Amino acid sequence: MEIEESCRRDVMTRLSRVQGQVAGIIGMIEEGRDCADIVTQLAAASRALDKVGFKVVANGLTQCAVAVERGEEPPMDMERLEKLFLSLS
After folding, report:
1. Integer CA distances (angstroms), 15 to 4, 7, 10, 56, in order
2. Rounded-to-10 torsion of CA 52, 54, 56, 61
3. Which one of 51, 61, 68, 79 is separated from 89 by 20 to 30 angstroms, measured CA to CA?
4. Which pLDDT band, with edges at 50, 70 and 90, does 64 fall under?
């Protein structure tokens, strides 16, 4: 199942931000910054990645719901979507 275009753009924007956060964390480590500051930034990056994952799963759920509503075969079975969702928790 492919990610819809509007979702793809949003996901790519979010991932670019996370990429910047990770680069910042690397810089913090290289500079010898306090571990509490580093962990705070790691937690923020982790939460941002989780949000991206949930956005992708929500996109899949939406595509499946629309397909079922139209009487079509969903692009992914619900069991697989559920496993993807649970892998984020």
Report:
1. 16, 12, 9, 12
2. -170
3. 68
4. confident
